[in-house]
Write a structure and sequence with these properties.
Structural class: alpha/beta
Number of domains: 2
Shape: elongated
Domain Dihydrodipicolinate reductase N-terminal: 1-103
Strand content: 15-25%
Organism: Heminiphilus faecis
Strand order of the largest sheet: 2-1-3-4-5-11
Helix content: 25-40%
EC number: 1.17.1.8
Keywords: Amino-acid biosynthesis, Diaminopimelate biosynthesis, Lysine biosynthesis, NAD, NADP, Oxidoreductase
CATH class of the largest domain: Alpha Beta
Bound molecules: NADPH dihydro-nicotinamide-adenine-dinucleotide phosphate, the ligand O=C(O)C1=N[C@H](C(=O)O)C[C@H](O)C1
InterPro entries: DapB_C, DapB_N, DHDPR_bac, NAD(P)-bd_dom_sf
Length: 250
Amino acid sequence: MKIALIGYGKMGKAIERIALSRGHEIVSRIDVNNQDEFESPSFASADVAIEFTTPSTAVANYKRAFAAGVPVVSGSTGWLDAMPDIKALCDEGKATFFWTSNFSLGVNLFFAVNRYLASLMEGFPQYHPAMKEIHHIHKLDHPSGTAITLAEGIMSCDKAVKGWTEEPANSADNIVIAHERIGEVPGTHIISWDSPVDTLTIMHEAKSREGFALGAVVAAEWTAGKKGFLTMDEMMHSMIERPQLLDIIK
Ligand SMILES: NC(=O)C1=CN([C@@H]2O[C@H](COP(=O)(O)OP(=O)(O)OC[C@H]3O[C@@H](n4cnc5c(N)ncnc54)[C@H](OP(=O)(O)O)[C@@H]3O)[C@@H](O)[C@H]2O)C=CC1
Ligand SMILES: O=C(O)C1=N[C@H](C(=O)O)C[C@H](O)C1
């Protein structure tokens, strides 16, 4: 498969290594200094572009890739206010787009565990949830995209939790998300349900960026040839329904 990389930072480089090891060809690499490449024949020849840049640049990158007719798989976070516009472009048949706040298999299992625990807790109002995410000092956004997805999962399963906030004073009906930035931590998410007598805690701790990068390449392989607005849940379900596809995530 021909892959274009938009963003050649920590994730772009990790994705390149894994894509090459899986037999793919990198036909284009776009960074801050070669933006003309979006209009090049090599970029247009890509089966899919994998985009990992910044909160302030991601949406413009998507639109330039769509204009070139190239489907986009992206993990950039911190731009979600624009999601309705991007979805509308896909629904109008003008774009193909796959985004998730976290491409790692472990985090997607953690999303399911989180929703299951929240649905149990709906029956036990003495427990109140709180979240902490810890990342490296270079991260531009907070809370992490993964923390927002986890909070949305809790809100969808426990109707007593009305929203999320970063303000500890607003904790009554909300889940408070705290963030810490420490060294080169790849990504840790901790959810605690606290009652007057005890605390239940679940945690996911990434050991490196390999899981994110592998998930992004697998998503690109799954996206090639498809159309429209594609989701991680859809990909995970199609793999569970066809277990032979799970072999590719090993
Ligand atoms: N969904 C997931 O599973 C994951 C998501 N992420 C998210 O991915 C994003 C990138 O993470 P990471 O790779 O660690 O960050 P980096 O800062 O290491 O890389 C981002 C790269 O994008 C480049 N860039 C900036 N603007 C543009 C532009 N307009 N066009 C092309 N390239 C540009 C930067 O260049 P320069 O440095 O010169 O400015 C940099 O090389 C973040 O939003 C992060 O939250 C990260 C890991 C996993
Ligand atoms: O910036 C990062 O590094 C990460 N960002 C994603 C997020 O915001 O959730 C995913 C992962 O935790 C790493």
